[in-house]
């Protein structure tokens, strides 16, 4: 039995290594954070860039060439293509960008029903008329300042003192803001990634809790943990029978098999694996490494 487990472990490692070995990497600039397909079926990447106000924006990938699409943002994070626009979250602002790269403010702090601190991921709704945006709340207290990109241990004194302010908002393309997932639940404290799933006649939200590593589903009434243990959860996307998750602080990308309830590391070669795009057509994850300044095209099927 022990030998069988060892063999299985070796096979999983070999699979992960072979997948990553086929991956293509492209330099895209300073601090890429999120990526999606948009105008002309091209890839668009949010770029945090430096610390100067307005130097953040979006780059477009054309073949192997990287071009500036727009600037004028501060620290853009999640991005989605919906209703003929790119929509991105920028801490306390939400931007809408047209096909010519014109940037318009869709929503700002005063438009939200509660105080916001750190708007993060963006996912398109199924009606294609609005987006879901995670309000992660200030991430700093989650980290041990004496260790690089290290979260406090679960159950520690610091853990118990952390706030429970994370929630999710719904924002229409006209800028109307409503609360989609309330704050305060122990299972979802610092939501980062968000995605939409469920049957055709329903819309379930699934979020990655950055601190605990819980992958949490919300059906409009209650919370349910679908998977655990993926701390630093950034992007969350569903594949066929699996959930793909990236970890920003750990630099990992996982595949969680929902039937077998097994988690496989697809790659641990990143510095900071940020908000990837699941490219179903080409059967790959397009993964920004924020501190590495790259996009990696990782085959997954």
Full CATH superfamily name: TolB, C-terminal domain
The top-level CATH class is Mainly Beta
CATH architecture: 6 Propeller
Helix content: under 10%
Count of separate DSSP helical elements: 2
Mean pLDDT metric: 92
The backbone outline, from C-alpha atoms, is globular
- The percentage of residues in β strands lies in over 45%
Q: Rg, please?
A: 18 Å
Distance separating the two termini: 29 Å
List keywords for this structure.
301 residues; mainly beta; Neuraminidase; four-stranded antiparallel sheet; 2 helices; 24 strands; globular; disordered N terminus
Helix and strand topology:
Layout: H1 2-21, E1 24-27, E2 32-37, E3 43-47, E4 56-62, E5 65-73, E6 79-82, E7 85-90, E8 93-97, E9 103-108, E10 119-124, E11 130-135, H2 157-161, E12 167-172, E13 177-181, E14 191-197, E15 204-209, E16 215-218, E17 223-227, E18 233-239, E19 242-247, E20 252-257, E21 262-267, E22 277-279, E23 284-289, E24 294-299
Antiparallel strand pairs: 1-24, 2-3, 3-4, 4-5, 6-7, 7-8, 8-9, 10-11, 11-12, 12-13, 14-15, 15-16, 16-17, 18-19, 19-20, 20-21, 22-23, 23-24
Can you describe what's shown?
With 301 residues, the chain is mainly β. It has one domain (2-299): TolB, C-terminal domain (Neuraminidase), CATH 2.120.10.30. Helices cover 8% and strands 46% of the residues. The protein has two helices and 24 strands. The strands form six sheets. A four-stranded antiparallel beta sheet has the order 1-24-23-22, with no helix packed on it. Strand 15 (204-209) and strand 16 (215-218) form a beta hairpin. It is globular, with a radius of gyration of 18 Å. Residues 1-21 have low confidence and may be disordered.
